[in-house]
Amino acid sequence: MRPWIVWSTGLLAYVVAVLDRTSLGVSGLDAANRFGASPSTLSTFVVLQVVVYAAAQVPAGLLLDRFGSRAMIAVGGLLMAGGQFALAATESLPSAMAARALLGLGDAFTFISVLRLVPYWFSERRIPLVNQLTGICGQFGQVLSALPFLAILLGRGWSAAYLSATALGVLAVVLVLALVRDTPAGRVPNLHSAGVRETLSSLNTVWLRPGTRLGFFIHMGTQFSVTVFALMWGVPYLTAAQGMSREAAGSMLVVSVAAAISAGIVIGIWTSRYPHRRARLVLGIIASNAAIWTAVLMLPGPAPVWLLVLLVVIISIGGPGSMVGFDFARTFNPGSILGTAQGIVNMGGFLASLLVMQAMGAVIGAAGGYSFDAFRWAWCVQYAVWAFTAGAILITRRKARRTIGEIEESRYLLEYFEQPRRED
Known about the structure:
CATH superfamily: MFS general substrate transporter like domains
Largest sheet: none
CATH architecture: Up-down Bundle
Low-confidence stretches: 406-424
Number of helices: 18
CATH topology: Growth Hormone, Chain: A
Number of domains: 1
Oligomer: single chain
Distance between the termini: 55 Å
Shape: globular
Structural class: mainly alpha
Number of strands: 0
Strand content: under 5%
CATH class: Mainly Alpha
Helix content: over 70%
C-alpha cells in the first residue's frame, strides 16, 4: 500500500503542474485582453514558459540525481504556486511573462521527479504501466483547467481563478513533504557531487546511448501536437475558427483526457508484453496524427463536430505515446543517472512544442488575426516536425537494436564461459 500512497501523492503534484501549465490555454483570450497582447505576443507569452521548461530539463535531471524526488517536487510546487500568485496579482505584461517563466521552471522539476519514484517503489513488470498511469492520470490537471478553473474564471474573474490554482499548489507541496520518500529506505541512493567536467562527460555518455536519443525523438514526434493544442492554440482555434462556444471548447479538453487515459492503459500493457515493437507503435501514432490533421485542414470551412472530436481523440493518443520514450531511457541507462536521461527525453516534445507554438503565432499574426484561414495555415507547420522525427526514429531504432544485440551476445558469452566445465 505504501508505494501507491507515495506515487499518488507525487501524482497529485503533477496534476497541479498540468493545471498550471494549461491554465493559460483556456484563458488565452482573457490574457490578451488583460495584458493587451497581440497573437504573436500571446504565443511568446506561453513559449517563454516552454523555453524555460525545456532548457531546465537537463539541469533538473542532474539535480534530481543529486537531491532526489521529494525535494525536487516540493521546490517545483513552490515555484509554480509563486508564479500563479504573481499572475493573479499583476496586470503588467512583463511581470506576467516573468511569472510564467517561474512556472515553467517549477514545472520542469515535477514530472521527471515523479517518474523517478516509480523504479524504486514498484517491481520491474509494473514499471511500464505505472509510468503510463503517471502520464495519463496527470492529465486530470487539464480537466481541472477546462472545468473548475474555467468556471471560476468566467464566474469570479481572473484573480480568483489564479488564486485558487495557487492554493491547490500549496496544498500539494504540504502533502509531498508529509508523505513522499525517495526510496523505501527513505534516502537518496546517489549523493555523489560531480564536478563540471564529470557532469559534462556524464551528459555526453547519456546522450550517446541510442536508447536515450530514440526516446528523445519519440517524445518529440508524438507529444507536441496535443501539447500545442492544450497549452495554447486549441481553445482559440475551436472558438475563433470552428465556431464553438468556450464551454464546448473546454469540454473538448475533457475528451482529450479521457482518450489519453484509455490509450495509456492499452499502450502500457502493449509495451510490457511486446517491448521490441515499441518504436513501430510510435510511428503509427505519428502517422495517425498527421492523417487526422490533414482530414480537418483540407475542409474549406469549419469541420463537423464529430470530426473535431475524432481529431482530439487521435492527437491525445500522442500523450501516452510519448511515455514510450521514457521507457527506452529507463532500459538503456542505470538508475544512478536515470533523472538525467529522463530530462533529456522530456526536452524533445517540449522543444518541438515551443517551436510550433511560436511559428503558429507568427503565421496567425501575418495572416491578419484569429481567422479560419489563418489557423489552417498555422497548423500546417506541424508536418515538418513529423517528417523530421519519423526519420530520426527510424535511424536511431536501428542503432538501438544493434546495441541490444551486442548486449545480449555479451551476456550469452559471459554465462557460457562462467559455466562449470566437467573434465573429460
